[in-house]
Design brief:
The protein has two domains: 21-79, Fe,Mn superoxide dismutase (SOD) domain (Helix Hairpins), CATH 1.10.287.990; 91-192, Iron/manganese superoxide dismutase, C-terminal domain (minor pseudopilin epsh fold, 3-Layer(bab) Sandwich). The chain contains eight helices and three strands; from the N terminus they run αααααβββααα. The chain has helices spanning 21-43, 53-59, 62-79, 91-101, 104-117, 164-167, 171-182, 185-191, and strands spanning 122-128, 134-140, 151-157. It binds fe (iii) ion.
Amino acid sequence: MKIHVPPLPYSKDALAPTLGPRTLELHYEKHHKGYLAKVQKMLEGKPEADGELEDLIRTADGALFDNAAQVWNHTFYWRSMRPRGGGKPEPALRDVLDSAFGSVDEFRRRFAEAATGEFGSGWAWLVKDKYGRLRVQSSTDAENPIREGFVPLLTCDVWEHAYYLDYQNERSRYVEGFLDQLVNWEFVAENLGLARGPG
Ligand code: FE
């Protein structure tokens, strides 16, 4: 089967203290790989097993959609973070965020608002719409912006399993930590097709 869960892009203690190793252990090994196991079981012996994960996200429904989207969302989430991330984006990306939102701080405020405002389980996203405009939005459960024809640029998992061990019920503190310490601006720039600067 082509659909898989890639290795974590860093060690399980690399995001501490913002997200501790026990969170990454459970979130990656049990939750993320658990969604994959369910997709594998549902697709056993079916032609879609050799297809693209994105096609399932566009076309599948019910439990197959939920689990396939969760496989994709988590792979994208791990790459949306990096050790010693956060801070200010490099100038090319800063210009894009300034023109879309007025300032990087305003983007940050809207992203935090989407992440903390989503009632129950879901995701916060920065996406590019079909006109090339950037938008911040949240999604419920496994919902993925690819389904709406948007290009995902950044995501934050706001299911309780993402933060409960480190922050208990304080989702807003987790979201602050995500934005201040973990966000991987290089990944956002890459998803926007911005050229890398020297070095
Ligand atoms: Fe999760």
